[in-house]
Write a structure and sequence with these properties.
With about 200 residues, this protein is mostly helical. It is about 55% helix and about 10% strand. It contains five helices and three strands, in the order ααββααβα. It has a three-stranded antiparallel beta sheet with strand order 1-2-3. It is elongated, with a radius of gyration of 28 Å. The relative contact order is 0.14.
Length: about 200
């Protein structure tokens, strides 16, 4: 056997597979993509947050201009419009901690925006859910900074009075929780509908 043939036999053989990585040795398990929020996600969050702020601020001005402080107007069933001022957080909690509540709200809004910037493309529901959370939190934060309190007016009788911003925050949290629960159940259903075959 000639020397070139012997050298070819000693040369290591690379195991190159279709779909493998560029070095031909490590298979690609999944396509990598950025989860950071792109322009469509930012536009969605901004639109939802802007509508939430506008709706909350408009209703608060109407209530403050048409209903006297501590006055109550029955609407239907258990619902009444009850004009009260709240210096605490949602539903009248911690009424004597305005400065602390304002600081914590600002920190929460900053954290939500930071999280969205890093993971806004993770799920299509995030712009809506976080838009409601950011919009509701910002609207109440503006009132606390400008007035030292927020205006609450939705009263169900058995629950402390609240406003639209509080409702938006609760709805945003509910959407996120439902999405997490649904995402947790979907893989289980997939495994149940496709049982493993025994060899």
């Amino acid at each position: 056997m000639s020397e070139p043939a012997e050298a070819a036999e000693r040369r290591p053989v690379l195991d190159v597979r279709v779909g493998s990585s560029t070095n031909g040795l490590v298979p690609i398990s999944a396509a990598e993509r950025s989860l950071a929020a792109a322009a469509p996600q930012w536009l969605g969050l901004g639109a939802v947050a802007a509508v939430a702020v506008a709706a909350d601020q408009t209703t608060k001005r109407i209530v403050a201009g048409e209903i006297g402080l501590n006055e109550e107007i029955h609407v239907a069933g258990p619902l009444s419009l009850h004009h009260v001022q709240n210096s605490g957080i949602a539903f009248g909690l911690f009424p004597n901690s305005t400065a602390v509540v304002t600081l914590l709200t600002a920190v929460a809004v900053a954290w939500m925006i930071w999280f969205f910037a890093r993971a806004g493309a993770r799920h299509p529901v995030l712009p809506t859910a976080l838009g409601l959370l950011v919009g509701g939190s910002l609207s109440n934060l503006v009132d606390r900074i400008r007035l030292g309190h927020v205006t609450d007016y939705l009263d169900l009788g058995w629950w402390p009075a609240f406003n639209l911003a509080d409702s938006f925050i609760c709805i945003g949290v509910a959407i996120l929780l439902l999405t997490l629960v649904r995402a947790d159940r979907e893989p289980r259903r997939g495994r149940a509908s496709h049982p493993r075959r025994r060899p």
